[in-house]
Amino acid sequence: MKSNNNILFLATALASSTAALAQNPIIQTQLTTDPAPLVCGDRIYVYTGHDEDHADFFWMNEWRVYSSTDMVNWTDHGSPLNQSSFAWADDRAWAAQAIERNGKYYWYVCAHSKITGGMAIGVAVGDTPTGPFRDALGKPLFDNGSWDNIDPTVLIDTDGQAYLYWGNPHLYCARLNDDMISIRGEVERIEQRVEGFGAPDMEKRDKNVKYKDCYTEGPWISKRGNNYYMLYAAGGVPEHIAYSMSKTPTGPWKYMGNIMPLQDTGSFTNHCGVADFKGHSYFFYHTGKLGGGFGRSVAVEEFTYQPDGTFPIINATAEGVRPIGTLCPYNRVEAETMAWSKGVKSEWNEDTGVYISDIHNGDYIKVREVDFGQQQPLRFEARVASALQGGWLEVRTDSVAGPLVAQVKVPYTGGWEKWQTVETLVERPLVGKHDLYFVFKGLKGLKLFTFDWWRFDQNQVAAEGMMHNPVLWSDVPDPDVIRVGDTYYMVSTTMHLMPGAPIMASKDLVNWEIVNYIFPRLTGSPRYDMREGTVYGRGQWATSLKYHNGKFYALFAPNDNSDGETYLCVADRAEGEWTIHSRMRHFHDATLMFDDDGKGYIVYGTGEIMQLNDDLTDVVEGSHHILFKRDKTETNLLEGSRMIKHNGKYYLLMISLTNGHPRREVCYRADHIYGPYEKKVILETEFGGKGGVGQGTIVDTPDGRWYAIIFQDRDGVGRTPTLEPVRWLDGWPILTDWDGKIPYLMPVPVKGFEKKSIVYSDHFDSDKLALQWQWNHNPVDEAWSLTDRKGWLRLKTSRIAPHIFLAPNTLTNRTEGPACQGTIHLDLSNMKDGDVAGLSAFQGDAALLSVVKKGKRLYIVATKESVELTDKDKAVVGVKREEVFRRELKGKEVWLRMACDFRLGKDLATLSYSADGKHWTDAIKDFRMIYDYRRLFMGTRFAIYNFATRQTGGWVDVDSFDYQRD
User: Is 79 helix (H, G, I), strand (E, B) or coil?
Assistant: First the structure.
């Protein structure tokens, strides 16, 4: 929010229990005095003075402006006017008032005069209620050397005549010319009489007479109907507020009594202002509740005029006023707009304006009456900066410890005013009206970050034609995407899972379904059968998918052996049968490239290339080239090659992990396939509170638009693809929206296609296993069946296994964010002694909810199990097992459920069981799902298992997998 002067303000640290009810004082981030309200359209402005912190007198150097549309949330507009704005002033920026005339705003002030040594009245002018303001005259409007010249108040009457009043202990009046910056005629002193003000002028008072009241200072002039009101601080010190009325702006005045009687406000002075706003009447005043007698703060009360136009008695309260409007969270809201705060300060700079600073652990800001409507917001974003370690910004509803709806990590940005927009998904349903609390967390004792503004984005995902990121909130890493006609095909990595290299299809780049796998199993090593080791985290990696001369080609190199082979597979249809066309030497993270002349190439590693021979059976010896050398910024991983050709240029996209940067995507571009290549960073932004995004490709639509699918590590759920528009700028593909961000919400690229999913419920009614399922390593084919019992999946034990990590025929499926749940129904009638069957959150650190057969008894057993693998052959060398639940199961069937929560900061799984499918018992709660690339290198999966620990020959039947996703 723009302002015109730089000042740091003290924040108050009031207890949170008080904040739940308190609205007064209306500003807590600094000390404010002498309120002067001004209504402009649908907004009310309050012009204030500012007491210096810890002062022992009225040391005041500036004036400030605040505004509100609802009377509870006040926006700090900073200090557009201060003592130095007036060359003739040198001290005591005391009470002031602003008024509008003919589109100009005139701010009447008082300050100590260098010219005469007394107090003087000045005037500043601006084009908006918040300035900038300038001295309208370059000299005082009125300066006669008297100390009486303080506390100006102004009125423009219905006939257009403007009047200016001021004074302590005398009351003065001047008529202003139409220009509002010059005085018409002489300044008049209003004679104070007992009937007019409760006492005569000070010099005429009889010390032996007890007067009913007396004018002191701080006049406030207003008109309502045919009545003129002069409100003022009265009674000497300590002050209360009294008033007089008249039928003309110059009197005669009639003393009417008290408005705010003397009471414990913590201040020995008082100063008031009155305004009607949106059908309500408000009385502004100041108290010493935050800083004492020389540390005052503005407060407000609502009141109703008496039927005869007189004021009621108004008492000071902590509760203040009720809101008369709501705040829209879908517009940018300045951080300095607040109803209450604890511990924070406000600062200003010329580029940013006012922002919130001095944020420490446990501080917070409260915003009242935030109306989200009936449509769920999707994301939250905030503009922040930090010169140290940053921290966390939590958004909670209705109390400082209320439900958490969003939390975002604030990183080091390079300075307290080096701004960065951070964003995250909204973590829970949020509709209707709420008070919002922005709670700041981080290392105790440190200044955490600064805060400029915030905003929610509405959830329009349900609206036709909209989508949100991640486009697939599931483990779909290393994507390669092509378009053939109007169909998009994508291949991903599934490593040790069989069948492998899933082919997905979509008509719109958003709704994907699995249509095939490139291979049913890998047989190059016994470790694929979990013999002589395993291939956890190895197997098929980073497959490249191309369409050339009417055929589909897929290139991948199993990563179980760095000296192993690269497979080139071919199919007439992506959904049809794939065959191995050729086997070549190992190429890491390779991409196929077919040029316009029909020549084929393999680009691999970090910018290496070899040409394929004409029949694509091998590479051409001697064709090896290095396309580029790393520049000094590429200090770490640089791989994940994807090459395309566009408008005659070659584009090599790669993931870059380099020191001091988030995960990112870089592009190397050349006019010839062998170079020379130039480089550009085409995607470097954090997304959803989970760091950077990198590795994937770009693809065009039939009408010439381009999109990117790039994945992000999202912890427990795995590596999730995001979809972003491609902007071609100077011949470079820039993989963000126009704000330089990955959009949470964007239009579906191609409209009109039905919703698809890669995870769904399955009742095993087919005699073929649904394509969503994959086995952990190669399955034992004779040990499972969909036909032995129609409508059931039978899992048979085939060999002794000590634990799930070496158990054959464990059937897995992806989990999905933001939250999902899978339930299976098991028939346990044919288990044998020592058999273990159940449902797992399967990872290197796994949670298992098992049915264990011991003798003739069945037990529900919940365990947490962590596997240790060797680096070379991924052999299992140990499993740490912790049993956390055991209970005997009486029946022969059971329902097992796994619920996953992948919202920011969660990654938690709960496993439950039921004996009847209706009544559930939690066996493991809040199990943390951890993504570990050093072991299984995959997202957490649903795993259905049945293995023998003593004898083979038993089986379980699985009736159904019922799936739900939030």
Answer: coil
Per-residue b or e along 598-609, where b marks 16 or more CB atoms closer than 10 Å to that residue's CB: eebbbbbebbbb
What is the number of alpha carbons within 13 Å of residue 56 lying toward its C-beta? 0
Q: What does the alpha-carbon distance between residue 831 and residue 396 come to, in Å, rounded to a whole number?
A: 49
Element (H, E) at 195: helix 194-197
Q: With 60 as the cut, is the pLDDT of residue 7 above it?
A: no
CA neighbours closer than 13 Å in the CB half-sphere of residue 540:
31
Choose among 795, 876, 801: nearest CA to 537: 876
Report the SS3 class of residue 492. coil
| Calpha distance 617→939 (Å, rounded) | 35
Residue 40 CA to its chain's centroid (Å): 33
Residue matched to tokens 């409760």: 198
**Cβ atoms of residues 901 and 844 within 8 Å:** no
What does the chain come to in residues?
966
CB-count burial class (<10 Å; 0-12, 13-18, 19+) for 198 = buried
pLDDT tens digits, 508-558? 999 999 999 999 999 989 999 999 999 999 999 999 999 999 999 999 999
The pLDDT tens digits for 476-507 are 999 999 999 999 999 999 999 999 999 999 99
Per-residue HEC secondary structure of 883-916 comes to EEEEEEECCCEEEEEEEEECCCCCCEEEEEEECC
Other beta carbons within 10 angstroms of residue 210's beta carbon come to: 7
Q: 633 in helix, strand or coil?
A: coil
**Whole-Å CA distances, 498 to 221, 530, 844:** 84, 12, 18
How does pLDDT run across 147-174, given as a tens digit for each residue? Answer: 999 999 999 999 999 999 999 999 999 9
Instruction: Look up residue 805 and give its two tokens.
Output: 């990590």
Per the CB < 8 A criterion, the answer to whether 679 and 632 are in contact is no
Contacts of 818 (CB under 8 A, 6+ apart): 425, 427, 473, 901, 902, 903, 966
Residue 834 dihedral angles phi and psi, to the nearest 5°: 95, -10
Compute the distance between CA of residue 61 and CA of residue 109 in angstroms, rounded to an integer: 12
* Residues 310, 110: Cα–Cα separation, whole Å: 30
Res 524: pLDDT: 86
Return d(Cα 799, Cα 855) in angstroms, integer.
Answer: 19
Quickly state the pLDDT bin for 59 (edges 50, 70, 90): confident
Give the count of beta carbons closer than 10 Å to the beta carbon of residue 926: 11
Reading the block at residue 732, the tokens are 């470079």
State the Cα–Cα distance between residues 900 and 822, nearest whole angstrom.
9
Enter the tokens of residue 222: 């207003």
Residue 407's nearest CA partner among 380, 376, 443 is 380
Q: How many CB atoms lie within 10 A of CB 768?
A: 7
- Whether residue 818 is preceded by a cis peptide bond, meaning omega within 30 degrees of 0, is yes
Rounded Cα distance between 487 and 505, Å, is 7
Give backbone dihedrals phi and psi of 715, rounded to 5 degrees, phi first: 60, -130
